[in-house]
Amino acid sequence: MPIEKLNPLHYMGQAEYTGFWQKLFATLLYGFWGRFFFVALVVTAFWVGVRQRNPTLAAICLLLAAIVAYGGGVMNLVRSFTG
C-alpha cells in the first residue's frame, strides 16, 4: 500500500528515529530559531486565515506552531518516564 511508504520506521530503526527528533528539538527548534519558527507560523496562520480565507491551511500552520512550541517539552517528559 502507498501509505506504508510514509512510515519512517521502514527506512530506519526506532532508536535512530527517536534520536533524530530529539536532536531536532535540541538544536533547531530550541532558542532563537524555535521562537522564530513559532512566530512565523502564527503570523502565517493569521494571514492565511484572514486574508486568503483558507481555514484549513491556517489550522495546519497553528498545529505546526504548537508542535514547535511544545514538542521539546513533550519529548523531555516522555523521555523522563521511559528512561
TrEMBL record:
UniProt keyword terms in alphabetical order: Membrane, Transmembrane, Transmembrane helix
Membrane-spanning parts: 30-50, 57-78
Name of the protein described by the UniProt record: DUF2628 domain-containing protein
Organism of derivation: Geoanaerobacter pelophilus
